[in-house]
């Protein structure tokens, strides 16, 4: 019995290594949390639950490292305003798309590390409600440029399935709100983890 289990383990490990080593593309499906720059003293924000889907496409591969196109799409549906003032906006939402490149060190190892950098687009959408749930007639949307950079760890799973943990900072232009704010440029620090599917 132990011989059968041992052979099965070796077979799965070999299949996993072959799938990871030969993969041309990967899709990361991650769940995390984002901390965004405040507009103090006017507005302070809670952390927001964040959903992320990242496409990777192999451009060049070597046993020591590989280079991939990296296309992260990151969405945070709600950053709640914490000031507790009824006339302030209830919350705002954000979207980021920052295509770029990803370099992975020792991609065929059981555990590998990577770094990524890119640039693209950010959108901020202020809530149509105020904190007291009354309408927010001066609601604002903001389109801004964005630069994203970060890194993380990939862990080999079985065959086409793996696991990823990462931290990214998406640095964007200022947000607009229905009230006057300092209008600072925004750091959005995203910590997330989840599954990676390889093809």
CATH architecture: Beta Barrel
Strand content: over 45%
- Portion of residues within helices: 10-25%
* Name of the top-level CATH class: Mainly Beta
- Main beta-sheet strand count, sense and barrel state: 9 strands, antiparallel
Could you give the count of β-strands? Answer: 9
Question: What does the radius of gyration come to?
Answer: 21 Å
What is the overall silhouette? elongated
How far is it from the N-terminal to the C-terminal residue, by CA?
33 Å
The structural class is mainly beta
Enter the CATH topology name: Porin
- Sketch the topology as an H/E string, one letter per element: HEEEEEEEEE
Task: Describe the model.
The protein has a single domain (2-198), classed as Porin, CATH 2.40.160.20. It has 1 helix and 9 strands. The protein has one helix spanning 2-22; strands at residues 25-36, 48-61, 65-80, 91-97, 100-105, 111-126, 141-156, 161-172, 186-198. Strands 1, 2, 3, 4, 5, 6, 7, 8 and 9 form a 9-stranded antiparallel β-sheet that branches. A hairpin with a 5-residue loop joins strand 5 and strand 6. It is elongated and about 55 Å long.
């Amino acid at each position: 019995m132990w011989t059968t289990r041992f052979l099965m383990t070796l077979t799965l490990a070999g299949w996993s290594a072959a799938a990871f080593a030969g993969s041309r593309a990967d899709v990361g499906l991650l769940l995390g949390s984002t901390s965004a720059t405040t507009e103090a003293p006017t507005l302070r924000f809670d952390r927001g639950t964040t959903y992320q889907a990242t496409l990777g496409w192999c451009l060049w591969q070597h046993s020591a490292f590989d280079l991939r196109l990296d296309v992260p799409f990151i969405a945070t549906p709600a950053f709640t305003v914490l000031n507790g003032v009824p006339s302030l906006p209830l919350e705002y939402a954000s979207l980021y798309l920052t295509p770029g490149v990803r370099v992975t060190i020792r991609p065929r190892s059981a555990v590998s590390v990577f770094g990524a950098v890119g640039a693209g687009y950010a959108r901020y959408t202020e809530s149509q409600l105020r904190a007291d749930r009354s309408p927010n007639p001066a609601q604002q949307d903001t389109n801004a440029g964005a630069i994203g950079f970060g890194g993380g760890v990939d862990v080999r799973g079985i065959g086409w399935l793996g696991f990823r943990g990462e931290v990214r900072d998406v640095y964007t232009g200022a947000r607009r709100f229905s009230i006057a704010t300092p209008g600072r440029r925004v750091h959005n620090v995203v910590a997330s983890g989840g599954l990676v599917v390889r093809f």
